[in-house]
Amino acid sequence: MRRYMVMAGLVLQMIGQSAIASPQLNASITHQPKDRVVNIYGPGGPDTALRRAAEAFSLKKGISVNVVAGPESRWTEQAQKNADLIFGSSEQSMSAFIENYPFTNNKDAEPVYLRRAT
């Protein structure tokens, strides 16, 4: 009996974590990225290099670039409205973004750094 209770607890924990990990898309939000500002969203980590590249691009082209990084729950609603680019920290996270955000697709995803399989 105790084994079933532990198993049920683990299943509930997994369900709770998956609800946190994948955003709830808001159907009332219309994706309208054409605002003369480049809006980039993604997880923390790779954002340091992207911020530097965004600053250089802005100086050279005179186009504003906003990089918003961190937990997906922090930026998902805004990204649904105006994301021009979504970056992932791994192929796995990018695959999840492609599944979750209807304005992204596999054809447009471009891996920058491929890791060797182990």
Automatic annotation (TrEMBL):
The name of this protein is Accessory colonization factor
Q: Does the keyword Signal apply?
A: yes
Organism ancestry: Bacteria, Pseudomonadati, Pseudomonadota, Gammaproteobacteria, Vibrionales
Domain of life of the native organism: Bacteria
Q: Which UniProt keywords apply?
A: Signal
Q: Which organism is it from?
A: Vibrio caribbeanicus ATCC BAA-2122
Q: Which stretch is the leader sequence?
A: 1-21
